[in-house]
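A note from the maintainers: we've had questions about how concatenated examples are separated. There is no special marker in the raw files; a new sequence line simply starts the next protein. For clarity in this README we add a label.
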Amino acid sequence: MSQEAILTKKDGEVELSKPLEFMYSQLRNGRYRLKIERYVEQRTISQNALMWLWFTCIERETGTDKQDVHDHYCMAFLRRTALINGVEMTVCGSTSMLNTLQMTDFLEKVKADAAVELGITLPLPEDRYYAEFINEYKYRR
């Protein structure tokens, strides 16, 4: 059985999301490795919503189904090589497995590709006409 807690350091003070003593009490006898690594959140709901809003725009502007647009960009930007049963194969990652930093990188690549390859400007929430963009594409299927 493994234990996990979120450690937060702010202004020199460290807080744990649950007591260390409690986590110790849950362990069986044996040797354990304690490893501290930076915690990265999974992609956010707003990142996911932005992605699908963009793909709806691309669908409307190109006629390509938004699921196909999603799959195209996953193949373009989330492709990797894996060894499966001793055979090297190309596999495609999923946006659902990305953390917030990886999703930001993915969205930046999609935005750049849409601008260069499709001539489509995909706005970010902080952009001037983002509200109009939402009104144009959010409720259209």
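[label: protein 2]
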Amino acid sequence: MKETTLAMSVWRGDAAGGAFRDYRVPARPGQTVLDVVTWIQRHIDPGLSYRYACRVGMCGTCAMTVNGKPRWTCRTLVGTVAPDLRLSVAPLANLPVVKDLACDMTQFFDKWRRAEGRFQAAPGSAADFAVVPPESAARQAADAGIECIGCAVCYAACDVVSWNPAYLGPAALNRAWTLVNDVRDGAQAARLAAVAGDAGCHACHSHQSCREHCPKQLNPTAAIAGLKRLATLAALKGEI
């Protein structure tokens, strides 16, 4: 019986440039895109570079562009995205390429820092655990975005990042939103000032590509809209 094969087109290169290279991979039931990329590396081209860690959709390390869309490759079934047995795999968009399918995440996490995306305890905070009622509006607003794992899928999908590389991006702004709603945090004014600039929340065009592609079903667009409201109110009050 003739073996069914998958026609793979995989981007090979580095920051200086590259091109797609074609491979033929055995097509098997239940394959993920990460499975077939790994098969190429182990059986055809040991020089192929890419990243992965958990393989079960927990870390987001394996994110790549699959048939033109950013996805976690460990959870993307070949049968779902390539019913015609043709598959294109490339590095994430909007990030510098280190080699082949591996991107440099430095600028992505630098933008988290620029958005004041770290918890800063309020002066005089109690030494014991703070009690935050789970039913409070602020807690629920934070909960809506707190499951982000920093995979950069939303960043790769963002149209604004594509034409304005200075834009902080949906993940950094979503992180800022969760902290703005953390009643224990003491850097609210500094954080709102950080996200209110030309490359901040007001640059978002609300295309919702981040929401559409987020593997965790988060809604960074809603978080950014919340930051727009709070930053505008703070500016009107002269707080930023």
